[in-house]
Amino acid sequence: MSRHASRRRLTLVSLAGVGALSAAGISLLPSLASAAPCPDVEVVFARGTGEAPGLGITGTPLVKGIKSALPGKTVSSYAVDYAANFSQTSAGPGATDMTDHVKSTAANCPATSFVLGGYSQGGSVTDIALGIPTRLGTGRSIPPQLASRIKAVVVFGNPLRLSGRTIASASDLYGAKAKEFCNTGDPVCGNGRNSAAHLTYHLNGSVEQGARFAADRINQK
């Protein structure tokens, strides 16, 4: 058998082996994924109502700002998987997804610290995940034993303020770790009538302040 034929036969055998593993329900991809290094910091962020899946208009620059402020650390991000629907009924399921992700990552990456946050309805997602009751539903909350791993909480336009509360006033565990932004006139958090005020957190310096706050909290450890 020629050398070329031998190589071709070995390639076919290798491909057949991979095919057999796949047919048996065994994938090589999880092994490769599990080999990925754990980040020093993970930002878990819930976008606002009506935004396309992802980190959204505030979460995207927040993550970028935190990365810039922590040049010596690895920073990853996770966009909470939830509907962010206009009926305001998805905050509870969003909180459950945020909680489940934090629990899973914390178990697999024991040295990783977390920054949690949300914008608009995403603020309610964050509230519920922190164990703060809201009018926008219920969901699973992060176990108290993981509170020390959560170094900062940053929210923008959080509807919790409409009930006269803030994370600082409603949570003994997370109040001191929270930075909360509510623009004057914002109807979602401040009972205002200026809908444009709810859309400018990524333009008026709030995101940059939030990123610096989170980075400072991370560096305090």
UniProtKB/TrEMBL annotation:
Alphabetized UniProt keyword annotations: Disulfide bond, Hydrolase, Serine esterase, Signal
**Cleaved signal peptide residues:** 1-35
**Keyword Cell membrane in annotation:** no
- InterPro entries for the chain: AB_hydrolase_fold (IPR029058), Cutinase/axe (IPR000675), TAT_signal (IPR006311)
The record's annotation in Pfam families points to: Cutinase
Annotated family: Belongs to the cutinase family.
Which domain of life does the UniProt lineage start with?
Bacteria
Gene3D superfamilies, A to Z: alpha/beta hydrolase
Quote the protein name from its UniProt record: Cutinase family protein
